[in-house]
Design brief:
Rossmann fold, 8-stranded mixed beta sheet, globular, binds NADPH dihydro-nicotinamide-adenine-dinucleotide phosphate, binds ketopantoate, EC 1.1.1.169, 2-dehydropantoate 2-reductase
Length: 347
Amino acid sequence: MSSKCNVLIYGGGAVGSIFGWRLAQQSTNRVSVVCRSNFERVRSTGYALKTAAWGSGCFIPDQVFKAGHVRRSSHLQSYDYVVCSNKFAGDLTPTLRDLSGIIRPTTTLVTAQNGMDVEVPLRRAFPTNTILTTICNIGCSQILPGLVEQTADLKRKAFLIGVPYHDNSDRNAALRRRNALAAMDSEFDSIDCVAEARWRKLIFNCAWNSTTALTGLNTHELLRRSGASQMVLQLAQEAYNVAIASGIQLDPQMPHETIKAAATSAPITPSTLQDARNKRPMELTPIFGYLVMQAAKVGVQVPCITLMYDLLRQMNDALVARQSWQVPDMLLPAVEQLLGREQIRER
Ligand SMILES: NC(=O)C1=CN([C@@H]2O[C@H](COP(=O)(O)OP(=O)(O)OC[C@H]3O[C@@H](n4cnc5c(N)ncnc54)[C@H](OP(=O)(O)O)[C@@H]3O)[C@@H](O)[C@H]2O)C=CC1
Ligand SMILES: CC(C)(CO)C(=O)C(=O)O
C-alpha cells in the first residue's frame, strides 16, 4: 500500500457517510463516495453530520460518483479499501457490475452491512481479494440528503472489524489490513471472533428491526406498549436458540440483554423501520431469511421469527410494487391532467 490510502465508500447513506467521514480525518486517506438518490446534494455540498459518538462535522469526499456510473468515471483510480455500505436488498447485480470495474487484486473489500453471509456475493465475484467484515453498533439515519444524524450507540465501539473467512489465501495480509483499518479511528476496533459478534448483532436486529418495522414505532415507543417486551424477548430467544444449536457460544442472558440494551440507550429507529417509513425495499433475507433457513438446518423451532418474516415480506412486496409504479416522464402531463397532480404525487 502506498503512503496515501485510497478509500471508496459504496453507498453514501447514513453508515457509509459516517464511516467515510471518520476515515477522512486521517490526512493520509483520500475518501471518495458512491451515492444514488443523494448524488446531486453530496456532489455539491458534501455531508453535514451530527453524531453522539464523535460530535458534529462535515465531510467533503474527494470524489463523488453516481451508482451505476462508477466504472466509467473512475477508470484511473486504484482503491486500497472499498467499503460496501449499500443495502443488502433487491438485485445486487448492478452493484457488482459497478465494483467489477474498480476492484484490483490489491483492493480490500469491507462489508458494513447487517445480517449474515453478506460477504458471500463479494467472495463469489472477487474470489481472491481480501474481504473484511464490519459490525456497526450505531443507530443513525440520513434525515435529509447529505444530512446525517447518529443518536444511539449500543455501548460497544461503533465499528467492529474482523476477517470473516478462514479460507483466505493470505490470512496474515488480511489481518494486517484489518488492523490498519481499525487503527484509523478510536471508535473502530479489531475483533477476532467474527461469528460471535455477527450473531449478537443478528439477535438484536431480529428482535428489534422486525417489531419496530411492523408497528411503525421506535424502540422506546414500542417498549411502552403492553406485551411488546415479551414479544421482542421471544424473538431474541428464538434467534439465540438457533445460534446455540449452530455451535456459537453466547451468554444465556443475551436475549434479556437485547431488551436492556435498547431500553438503556437513546431511542433507536432501526434501519428496517427507516426503510418502511421511506417506502424503500427492506433488508430481510440476510436477517430473517438466514435465521429461518439456519433454524431448519439445525432443527430449532422459530414460530415467531417465521411469522415476522412472513409479515415483513408481505409488507416489502407492497413497498416494492409501489416503487415500480412510475409514470414515464413524457406521459406525466397527460396523466396529471387525468388524475390530478396530488394523486400522482401521493403514489
Ligand atoms: N442505519 C443504521 O443505524 C444502521 C445500519 N446498518 C446497516 O448498514 C447498511 C447501510 O444502511 P444505512 O446507511 O442505514 O442505509 P441508507 O439507506 O442510509 O444508505 C444506503 C446507501 O446505499 C445506497 N444504496 C442502497 N442500495 C443500493 C444499491 N443496490 N446500489 C447502489 N446504491 C445503493 C443508498 O442509495 P439510495 O439513497 O438511493 O437508497 C444509500 O446511499 C445496511 O446494511 C444496514 O442494515 C447497520 C447498523 C446500523
Ligand atoms: C442496531 C441497529 C438497530 C442500530 O440502529 C441496527 O443495526 C439497524 O438500525 O439496523
